[in-house]
Write a structure and sequence with these properties.
Radius of gyration of chain A: 22 Å
Strand content of chain A: under 5%
Organism (chain B): Bradyrhizobium aeschynomenes
Strand order of the largest sheet of chain A: 1-2
Keywords (chain B): Membrane, Transmembrane, Transmembrane helix
Number of helices of chain B: 6
Helix content of chain A: over 70%
Number of strands of chain A: 2
InterPro entries (chain A): DUF112_TM (IPR002823)
Protein name (chain B): Tripartite tricarboxylate transporter TctB family protein
Radius of gyration of chain B: 24 Å
Distance between the termini of chain B: 70 Å
Largest interface: A-B, 66 and 73 residues
Largest sheet of chain A: 2 strands, antiparallel
Oligomer: heterodimer
Structural class of chain B: mainly alpha
Number of strands of chain B: 0
Pfam family, one (chain A): TctA
Order of helices and strands of chain B: HHHHHH
Strand content of chain B: under 5%
Order of helices and strands of chain A: HHHHHHHHEEHHHHHHHHHHHHH
Distance between the termini of chain A: 59 Å
């Protein structure tokens, strides 16, 4: 019953007029930025972080919740109408959604994605609200060695287990870990990798890294291969609304997508690609209209969209209860907390319940606002999509650099932004995943301090990592997650040789 | 399997870019070790600040080796041709932005320069038009964020006129 009381209290906070306004602004800005091609939710959050600098933590986090969901919704609109998914989690949506738009059924595709996102987001947020207190109870029993082991699991699953190439994923992770070392060591005050540059003593700013890698890197990459792509926006013909038939075909995929999305998002397994593709293949198998798949089947939009949104709410479970970001977007949310000196985790639930439950409650509110706002405003979003590419990317870069200029108007910081942009460009060109860099930067220093705390308590005995049953189990899980892709690849090669 | 048939051919063979990537990773690992050696040893239980850089350096070393093997086997994913001029143009824009901010030219001038060069990198040739659009857009952003949201954006000659 505690959860109900806490949630009701959160609702009372989130429903204050000022906070409702923040949520509305967040949803609006999030959708407007997220709808721009090539901008995924992580970048949406990174770009809009400076907007929240001047707000109090409560209002800012509530605006964040809106930006988060708005950015996701904007991303699926782009995937459906121009087939450029801003992130891999929208790829499954683009498969059928863009086909529907081409067949003149863009309206129902957007509607099923919006309503499906609402249904999934609401169920998953309820899951978040009821699961979190239990996880917090477990988390308070975690010692520093257990936290360190848990972070090892997150490092491996985010970078190695589910990507195309574990080697390239781990390379990205280690670039992030290296960047995380820069600056003054918090435990001893020693400078590391600062090379005498005073600006580097504070370390690498997560927002500078994310905006550099995602926004500047993306702009450079798209400019470099401009002659390869031709984007075409599908006009929305016909009715926006779903027919009775559409509803009948959508509601089960919504629920199944939620069932895939929430648990997988809540595990530190990284990313929404897996649940979206699981949902897509399940719907493809279960559908009564198999011949429509590949030509624009509404189930293929409804399921993955629900899975995507449910997993986004799912990633908030480890983020809020353990302080563990498992996706680039979650890492940006963590950066949002850190700018107020707040560290998500069991302590935050105890010390600032108003903040945590206000945030959870505003997820419900943001979700409802999206549903009410977005279908009527779809014409506006389509117009945003029609901005000519040169101006679009020029505008994105202006806005991206503005964030850095506002935070730290120094030549060093801006040079770092440009440098990370080049890094992001090269990583895209050579197919290295980006998210592990961001997760490595933000989680690396936390993992190091937990490890050092654990070793200080054990008087330097590393066996402490194996003596705690939680930590030992988690380290074994991490080892399995690291070796699994290599073993599976070996098996695959073995099979291929047999043929 | 026959060599030189179909699209698979270019993917095989040594990938020079991959070797450069491996070399860069190894170089970063060396810098980490060098930097860790500069940190004075502290007497405390557990691990000091110099341990983690070395651990990460070892990881980077292993990954440099793995990337090198991938490159020698030609295992890198295929790449499309790219337009270095466009990339260069955006980088010039960023350099201009950094220079203008560094010398106190202010937000509007700096970001307008970036706007125009980026737009040109994406194939537009209407410089004057883009200059006007860029100036209007960045002025609006400046007013919205500096005046209304009270973020402090660097002011130069143009901003003082507002």
């Amino acid at each position: 019953m505690d959860t109900f009381a806490a949630l009701a209290h959160g609702m009372a906070i989130a429903a204050q007029p000022m906070n409702l306004l923040y949520a509305l602004i967040g949803v609006f800005l999030g959708t407007a930025v997220g709808v721009l091609p090539g901008i995924g939710p992580a970048l949406t959050v990174a770009l809009l972080l400076p907007v929240t600098y001047k707000l109090d933590p409560g209002g800012s986090l509530i605006m964040f919740a809106g930006i988060y969901y708005g950015g996701m919704y904007g991303g699926s609109t782009t995937a459906i109408l121009i087939n450029t998914p801003g992130e891999s989690a929208s790829m499954a949506t683009a498969l059928e959604g863009n086909k529907m738009a081409k067949a003149g059924r863009g309206g129902p595709a957007l509607a099923t994605s919006a309503i499906g996102s609402f249904v999934a987001g609401t169920i998953a947020t309820i899951g978040l609200a009821f699961l979190s207190p239990y996880l917090v109870d477990i988390a308070v029993r975690f010692g520093p060695e257990d936290y360190f082991a848990l972070m090892c699991v997150a490092f491996i699953t985010v970078s190695a287990t589910f990507g195309d190439s574990p080697i390239r994923g781990l390379t990205s992770l280690f670039i992030g870990l290296t960047l995380g070392l820069v600056g003054i060591d918090k435990l001893t005050g020693q400078a590391r990798l600062a090379f005498g540059v005073p600006e580097l003593l504070d370390g690498v700013e997560v927002t500078t890294l994310a905006v550099g890698l995602f926004a500047v890197g993306e702009a450079l990459y798209v400019a470099s291969r401009r002659h390869h792509t031709e984007e075409k926006i599908e006009a929305i013909k016909g009715s926006l609304w779903m027919t009775r038939e559409d509803w009948k075909r959508s509601w089960k995929p919504w629920l199944r997508g939620t069932m895939f999305g929430f648990p997988i998002g809540a595990l530190p397994a990284g990313g929404a690609e897996i649940p979206t593709f699981l949902s897509y293949s399940t719907e493809r198998r279960l559908t009564k209209y198999p011949d429509e798949f590949g030509k624009g089947a509404i189930e293929g939009v409804a399921g993955p969209e629900a899975a995507n949104n449910a997993s986004a709410a799912g990633t908030l479970v480890p983020l809020l209860t353990l302080g563990l970001p498992t996706s680039a977007t979650a890492a940006m949310m963590l950066a949002g907390f850190q700018q107020y000196g707040l560290n998500p985790g069991p302590l935050l639930f105890a010390e600032r319940p108003d903040l945590v439950w206000g945030l959870i409650a505003s997820l419900f509110i943001a979700n409802t606002m999206l549903l009410v706002l977005n279908l009527p405003l779809i014409g506006l979003w389509v117009r945003l999509l029609k901005i000519p590419t040169p101006w679009l990317y020029a505008g994105i870069l202006v806005f991206a650099t503005m964030g850095t200029i506002a935070a730290k108007p120094s030549v060093v910081e801006l040079s770092m932004l440009a440098g990370f942009g080049v890094l992001g460009f090269l990583m895209r060109r050579f197919d290295f995943p980006i998210a592990p860099v961001v997760v490595g930067l933000i989680l690396g220093p936390i993992a190091e301090s937990q490890l050092r705390r654990a070793l200080a308590i054990s008087l330097g005995d590393p066996m402490t990592l194996l003596q705690s049953p939680i930590s030992a189990t988690l380290l074994v899980v991490a080892l399995i997650a690291l070796l699994a892709p290599f073993v599976l690849k070996g098996l695959g090669r073995f099979k291929a040789n047999e043929d | 399997m026959t060599d030189g048939v179909g699209t698979e051919a270019p993917a095989r063979g040594v990938d020079k870019a991959g070797i450069v990537i491996a070399a860069l990773l190894a170089a970063v690992a060396l810098v980490l070790v060098y930097d860790a050696n500069q940190i004075p040893a502290t007497t405390m239980y557990g691990m000091g600040p110099q341990v983690m850089p070395v651990v990460i350096a070892i990881g980077l070393g292993i990954l440099a080796l793995a990337n090198l093997i991938d490159a020698l086997r030609g295992n890198l994913p295929p790449r499309e041709s790219s337009d270095p001029f466009a990339v260069l143009l955006i980088l010039v824009g960023l350099a201009l932005l950094i220079g203008i901010i560094g010398f106190g030219g202010g937000f509007i001038l700096a970001t307008t320069a970036l706007f125009v060069t980026t737009s040109a990198a994406f194939g537009r040739r209407a410089f004057v038009m883009d200059l006007v659009i860029g100036a209007v857009l960045t002025t609006l952003i400046y007013v919205a964020f500096d005046r209304l949201l009270t973020l402090s954006l660097p002011a130069g000659p143009l901003e003082r006129l507002l």
